Structures are given as C-alpha cells and as structure tokens.
C-alpha cells in the first residue's frame, strides 16, 4: 500500500512520560504503535505504569511529556469527545460500568448521549448485543445476570460506540472456565483493535499474537507473545509468572 494513503495506526504513543502530583514518576518515555486490527497484550508487574498508560489513551490523564494519537487524532482538549468515543475501556468489574435498570438501557446510554435516536439507536444496541451473544437479554436487569454475562454486556456498552480501540482491564478475572472461553471467542470475532491489560498470561497467549511488557515505567520488551513467555530471564526480571505446569511452547498460536 502507498504509504501516503495508508491508514493511521489505531494507537501511536511517542515519548510519553508522566509524573503524578506527588512527584511519583510513573512513565519514562514510552513509545508504542498498535496497527488497526491488532490484538496486543499489555503485561507487567503491579506498579509498572500500565494503568497510567491506559488513562492517557482517552485523556483522563494529561499534562505529561510526549504525544498520544488515536487513529491519527491527537489526544487533547480539541478532540476529547471523539477520542473518548474511539477508545472504549472495559473495566475489570462490570458493576462499575452497568448502572441502568435494563441491559438495553445500559448499552443505549453512550450512543444516546452522543445524539443517536430512534431506529438507528435500536439497531446500534441490537448489533452490539448480538456481537457478544446477549441479544436475548435486552430487557433483563443487569444485576440478575451472572458475572460472565455482565462482563459481556459491559463489552457491548463499549461496542455500541463503534470504537477504534477496545481496551480491556483484566478481562478474564473472576470468570469460570466456560465464561472465559466464551469471552475469548467473542474477542477473536471482533473487527476492532484490542489492547488487553492482563496478568493472565495463558489468556494473553491465546488471544494476543503480540505482547508488550511494561515495567518500571518503560517498555522492557515488545514482540511475539509466545517468544516473550518462553524467555525465562525476561519473565523473572519483571515478575511475570506462568501457572504451574503451563508450557507456552506447547500452545499453537496465530502469527503476528
């Protein structure tokens, strides 16, 4: 493809450094590019800066050094509403995301706030619920659903905004094996860029051909997930541990 007409990457982070008001330096010049449609796992120990990085993607945090762009759009005050539509964050606890009386109203909330009405709004809601296998639950109260079902509805609330990037915070946490597999199938089926923050290394290997290790506020490694998980020295240095008996070399994974 002609580079002049090539689409901008979903995410471009250049030289991002950030210190909190108390003086704690959380990021030290992070560079990260994620192409449209990539699924990338963001790995690292607690306190590595993962949350700080994610909060820069939609402008919740700002004021540091460096730049962040989403689909070529600089993250800043001038484009904040559009950036926040394009960067959909699914929280670790779906109850932080679901607050309306019914599933339909939760999924409709974002698009309605953006001005969508009538048949177009209904179609957007129905499509998002269909994508996550929850089309038959539109009239149910979210608190009557299982945890795994609530997580899928939380994903639908973000998909209803037609985002450029789906950011998932520990998507497999507290899921039973069946719900874990169902969510993985859904995430593989989506035509959207995925950035998955997780400590669940087998889940990262299953879903994300590429991983980035963030440690001490810098990117310590960036490459094929399987290669990184097989690097025992890298894993040990950044407090990343595989489950007992799990061998990443034994898993057949998609190429980058």
Report on the structure:
The mean pLDDT is 93. A hairpin with a 5-residue loop joins strand 1 (11-19) and strand 2. This protein is α/β, with parallel strands linked by helices. Helix 3 (103-113) crosses helix 4, helix 3 (103-113) runs parallel beside helix 5 (147-159) and helix 4 (118-131) packs across helix 5. The chain contains 9 helices and 10 strands. It is globular. The longest helix has 14 residues, at 118-131. It has a single domain, classed as P-loop containing nucleotide triphosphate hydrolases (Rossmann fold, 3-Layer(aba) Sandwich). The strands form 2 sheets. It has a 6-stranded mixed beta sheet with strand order 6-7-8-3-9-10, with helices on both faces. The chain has a 4-stranded antiparallel beta sheet with strand order 2-1-4-5, covered by helices on one side.
Shape summary: globular
Mean pLDDT: 93
Beta-strand percentage range: 15-25%
CATH homology superfamily name? P-loop containing nucleotide triphosphate hydrolases
What count of structural domains?
A: 1
Head-to-tail CA distance between termini: 18 Å
Strand order of the largest sheet: 6-7-8-3-9-10
CATH topology: Rossmann fold
* CATH architectural category: 3-Layer(aba) Sandwich
Q: In terms of structural class, how would the helical and strand content be classed? A: alpha/beta
Note the quaternary state here: single chain
For the largest beta-sheet, the strand count, sense and barrel status come to: 6 strands, mixed
Q: Helices and strands, in N-to-C order?
A: EEEHEEHEHHHEHEHEEHH
Rounded to an integer in angstroms, the radius of gyration calculated over CA atoms is 18 Å
- β-strand number: 10
What CATH first level would be assigned?
Answer: Alpha Beta
**How much helical structure, as a percent, in the residues?**
25-40%
Q: Compute the number of helices.
A: 9
| Uncertain residue segments | none
Protein name: ABC transporter ATP-binding protein
Membrane topology: Peripheral membrane protein
Keywords: ATP-binding, Cell membrane, Membrane, Nucleotide-binding, Translocase, Transport
InterPro entries: AAA+_ATPase (IPR003593), ABC_transporter-like_ATP-bd (IPR003439), ABC_transporter-like_CS (IPR017871), ABC_transpr_CbiO/EcfA_su (IPR015856), Co_trans_ATP-bd (IPR005876), ECF_ABC_transporter_ATP-bd (IPR050095), P-loop_NTPase (IPR027417)
